């Protein structure tokens, strides 16, 4: 969302001043037009934007069938875009395998916390980076990473080196200085999954050569056709309790502008959701 | 070679003070030990170092059989490490295909000039960067690139943009600021082949995400088993005149220390070779 506010070339047109802010959202169908395949009460997901209601074309959304034992809210978390990002980013782009050392930044976030758990399921050693002692404790105790390191610690550089050793896969949710540090800790044929980033002058990319490593950006929309596969697998892992999730719910559309910056100040733990109405009015 | 002189972790042990400088070289066998599979007069290639003669183990070199119509010197050029680098870097890592726009930096160099010609053979539009008007002219007239741009021109940024448009494959022989500029001109699913580089704070790597692009380092030694395939293909293209090459020969081992810096000042055009003796005494 933050990227869409910059007036520069990206993978989507920037949101213009005066337009409804673009956002993925869950909603339910209150009324249908002629010939619609949707029914009143259906749960849907789409780029519905920052609004309480609206009139949309059917192609702007897809119907969500909630598997038994799974919370509809999970379609904004492990079964939604963040979950899809974790799944395809780690398995397809990162090519994680048993015995790998996986480093995850933004590990207490919505995507990061799923990445950590998928890493453990894959049999990797998982090192997590987060910005408060509480988040680190949550990652070690609940999420089950091998080691969580606080990147705001005064001894972070040394603690990072000690905990990380050398990396097979780095799932990058932050970019910048930490990406640069990770570049210096690559193993042979390492893979860096660029998921979210911010501008910073990285210098360590020379190690991509000496370690014949890969740094690859990806967009989750490219995997849309394979979402059903991921949703099925992730739903099973959720039901088996192998994936834990945390939501940070802010109530009220008027709170949305102050909710977004929480993502940049570390003010949330888990998936940040703004609740603008009652999706549970959908027939489930 | 320059990298081997830095005392830091790389893909090979740094060369120590007092050791023979490491270098790939052609030589001929003057004497063989017991049970050797080589014969006196054989042409060999190996990490023979900066020296006129030496005593080596057989596994440190491989015998070169020079195909008819090809100069033995080509095994230090298009049929040597620089040619192998161009071949596997462009075809395997860069996955070049007809219709692609290919950008090559250091294009008048030994690797770069082969990359440009392989790009044309593959059916790509080739934009070349070099550091003098003479090199640019050579690239356009002889090597046959679509456009060569002088990166020392005062209007380079604008000329770069106009010539390059957007890139499918960037074969990077220089890193730094030009890598950063190339990052801003990526097409969807672009591939950056990191071949040689120098430290610089690159910021444009965010475009790897928005264009779902890949930046991959590689080392030619990983492809050793496939050298015969490349040598056969490249030899044919050499004989057909589809690949042109230029050598810059410096005579005398004592000139080697002043020859190496030419690579960093742009003082050479084509493959820089130091001739320390007469490889043509080999039986060919």
Care to give the gist of this entry?
Chain A is an alpha/beta fold.
Q: Would you give an account of this structure?
A:
The structure is a homodimer. The first copy, chain A, has about 280 residues and is α/β, with parallel strands linked by helices. Chain A folds into two domains: about 5-65 and about 250-260 and about 275-280, no CATH class; about 80-220, NAD(P)-binding Rossmann-like Domain (Rossmann fold, 3-Layer(aba) Sandwich), CATH 3.40.50.720. The first copy, chain A, contains nine helices and eleven strands. In chain A, strands 6-5-4-7-8-9 form a six-stranded parallel β-sheet, with helices on both faces. The first copy, chain A, has a three-stranded antiparallel β-sheet with strand order 1-2-3, with no helix packed on it. In chain A, strands 10-11 form a two-stranded parallel ribbon. In chain A, strand 4, helix 2 and strand 5 (about 125-130) form a beta-alpha-beta unit. In chain A, helix 1 crosses helix 2 and helix 1 (about 80-95) crosses helix 7. The interface of A and B includes residues 216 and 219 of A. Strand 9 (about 215) of chain A pairs antiparallel with strand 9 of chain B.
How would you describe this structure in keywords?
homodimer; 19% strand; Rossmann fold; alpha/beta; 284 residues; 11 strands
Terminal CA distance of chain A: 29 Å
CATH superfamily of the largest domain in chain A: NAD(P)-binding Rossmann-like Domain
User: Whole-number radius of gyration of chain A?
Assistant: 19 Å
Strand order of the largest sheet of chain A: 6-5-4-7-8-9
List the chains of the largest interface with their residue counts.
Answer: A-B, 32 and 32 residues
Strand residue percentage of chain A: 15-25%
Largest sheet of chain A: 6 strands, parallel
Shape of chain A: globular
Q: What is the name of the CATH class of the largest domain in chain A?
A: Alpha Beta
User: In the residues of chain A, how many domains can be counted?
Assistant: 2
CATH architecture identity of the largest domain in chain A:
3-Layer(aba) Sandwich
Number of strands of chain A: 11
Domain Enoyl reductase (ER) (chains A, B): 3-274
Protein name (chains A, B): Enoyl reductase (ER) domain-containing protein
GO molecular function (chains A, B): oxidoreductase activity, acting on the CH-CH group of donors, NAD or NADP as acceptor
Keywords (chains A, B): Oxidoreductase
